[in-house]
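Before the break, one more example. Copy the sequence into your notebook; we will annotate it together after we see the structure.
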Amino acid sequence: MSETMLALTKMRPGPGVELVERPIPTPGPGEVLVKVKAASICGTDLHIYRWDPWAASRVHPPIIMGHEITGEVVARGPGAKRIRVGDYVSLESHVICNACRYCRTGQGHLCPHTRVLGVDRDGGYAEYIAVPEQNAWPNPPDLPLEVAVLLENFGNAVHTAFAFDVRAKKVLVTGAGPVGLMTIAVLKAIGARAVYATDITDYRVDFARRMGADVALNARTTDVVTALMDITQGDGVDVWLEMSGSPAAIEQGFAVLRPGGQVAILGVVGRAFTLDWDHGIVFKGAEVKGITGRRLWETWYQMRGLVFSGAVDLTPLVTHKYTLDQYEQAFATMASGESGKVMFLIHP
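Here is what the structure looks like once it is written out:
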């Protein structure tokens, strides 16, 4: 094996990324070395690629990008015993300390010392990556790459969908990007009475219907508040899952939430905005929950159960595939809004 590898690396502050040679990492104590088979693009990666204010405040180049990763374990560091060489794994991107109050009380997803792959430490847009073995989750050998590469991101959808009991409930999903689309599939699998979805492109509105939404509306061309109140016979929705990060969608969501309804918020706005706090939350008696990452490691067991049982089919989600040297086209496709997930094939 060569001592160097190709890696998409944010070499310096500013827009763009470069495909460069980097040393193949050596797995440290308790770590495994993974030969990356595939990696997919997330909204976070777009922020870093564009170098927006969030990225400039958080990321310190040089760093290899990418946190949605699947591959094969090819080496183990000292003390790594659970994961075997040859295992086909998907990776959890949040590397936690395992020692703080949150880690020790089952809230590792809130660990203040978390280091995220591709954000705080080198990620998986590369031929190899070293990670703690607890972050490597073995897959069945016949699991399609297109599914294995999505499991980390799928965890966001599962965490959000399981935030409240949605059985026999009317549920709204605002934002039919990849996570929203996966959330729709989960809601149908776990017994929601009806699932409504909104987005601002016809492509993703149609995609939402294909993933199981009973009603999907384009918020650019439809008065979604009037439409949803009509559909629910004036009752509004019982549960609202916010995936868009759009202030307009958030305003619409609070407008159609019934009194006493429940809200789980995954979407990140990225700036201050105005919210009718009194009528949207207080006087409505709404229950609001913020969602970050995946519950470590409860969500992994939930999502693997959904996928491996066949209750949720993720195969339609990957719509475009590229090699690492096609990264400019890959990021442009993901940014277009005319795609599902975009995947890099590295060692397929």
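The CA atoms of residues 92 and 267 lie 20 Å apart. The chain has two domains: 4-150+317-345, 157-290. Try to locate both features in your own notes.
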